[in-house]
Structures are given as C-alpha cells and as structure tokens.
Amino acid sequence: MAEITASMVKELRELTGLGMMECKKALAEANGDMKAAEDLLRIRSGAKASKAAGRIAAEGVVSGFIAADGKQGALVEVNCETDFVAKNEDFINFAAGLAKLMAGNNISDTALLADAVMADGETIESVRKALVMKLGENISIRRGIVYQTKDRLAMYLHGSRIGVMIDYAGGDEVLGKDLAMHIAASKPVCVSGDQVSAELLERERQIFTAQAAESGKPANIVEKMVEGRIAKYLAEVTLLGQPFVKDPDQTVEKLLKAKAAKVDGFTLYIVGEGIEKKSDDFAAEVMAQINQSK
Predict the structure, then answer these.
(1) All domains of the chain, ordered by start, with CATH?
(2) Which one-letter DSSP state was computed for residue 55?
C-alpha cells in the first residue's frame, strides 16, 4: 500500500474541489495513483474534469507579437520564480522582444533560441543570463509558437498571465479580438470535436458510463445517457460548441456562420499551467540552517 501524504491529498482536493477525507479515501483505494483517484471521485460525485487554472503555480509572463500585415506572429511564455520579478520592466521587455524575434525569424523551438540575436545585437542566452544576474532568479523560456498565415491573426493578452493567438479567416478585426477574448475566458481545448484526442474522449466515456451505470437504468438507456453526456462534454471543450461569451444565446459556430468566417487554429497560454511551484517553508529552512551550523 502506497503512503498517502498530505500533499497528495491537497493536490487531489485542488483537482476535484472535494473534501479531504473523500480525497484521502480515494487515494488509498487507488494505491496512491493520482489519476485513478481523480477518476474514482468523478465517478462517485459526477464532478467535471479538473480545471487547468487549478494547477497554475509558477510565475512569469505571456507575451505576443503580430506583424503589421497581420499574417505573422508569435506567442511566448517566460517563467521566473516570483511575482515580483514577473512585474519587473526588464523582464517584461525581454519577453516582448523575444516574441518579436521569434515571429521575425520563424523560430518556435525554444531550444533554438539561445543563439538568436536580439535587436541590440545580444544573443537571447546572453540577455537571459544578464537578467538572472540582475534579478537574482532563475529565468527560463518555457514555450512559444510562431504563426504564419494567408488569412489573418488576432491576439488577446489578459494582463500578462493569459495569452491567446488565433488564426482566422473572414469577418473583421473586431471579430478576431472577440474570439481571442472568448478563448481566454472559456478555455476551449481545440476548435472542433474531431480534434479532441481519442484518449481524452475514451477516458471521459468510461467515466460517464460508470456514472450512468450507478443509476440502475437499463443498458440501452445508459448508452443514450452516455452519448448525451459526451455531446455535452464536446460542447464544453470545443470552441465551436461553446456559447459565445458576449452573446450566450448563440454558439461560436453560429457566430462564425453569421460572419462568414472560420477559425483555422488557436493557441492559449496560461502562465505556469501544469507546473508545480515549490512551497517554501521559511521556518523549516531556518531550522535546517541552524542544524547544519551545529
């Protein structure tokens, strides 16, 4: 039997929003397997899939750039250790310059950025190291993407923590900005249902089937219940299926049809999404230093 720690229980509570004892019991039944424990709780409680925002921990900024012609752009996430450094002007300018360089040189792979030269003639790596020395924190370029399109690009930055870039055709600039804002607010995982991964869909189907089976209804009714839940799930996670944030009476799909427009793709970055932040215990650190000095 795997040891169930307080941190494991805390993580499962953040993922599901359920009580401590429920989470501890589920982890024990799943022998410490976090994913299996989450599935158990979702089956029993009918809880939705965990939200990405519940896993946000690291600090940093999302920055972006779109060329004047609207056909070339880039989105990038740069991480640091504290919110204080994330607000530093030099750090913010570094991320902004990085996005512009990526778009101009068509570099999406962050591993290839180190030797790229910025506007002042310095390489990315030399500027990054100088910032580390100046600000006293580790600074890393976590991820980035470059868009080159025959249509047009739109971008929305919600402060510096959420960034969206969207590749779309038809409509106008207002539509593009509205769609990008919608994505930032509603956080779809893809444009349409056929883009949802088979693995993710199968996991949801298994959970919905187990939930429906507990109702005690006949197999044919259970099957219909599951298909209804799958359809609802796809509407929740796909851009086209979601109610448009500025007019919930119509879906994004209907909005696009009315505007004779289409979305070819989008990228949504949330600072620190999926990264576990170290939880510092100042008292413990002090005691450790005292013990070392004895």
Answers:
(1) 1-50 (1.10.8.10), 55-170+262-270 (3.30.479.20)
(2) G
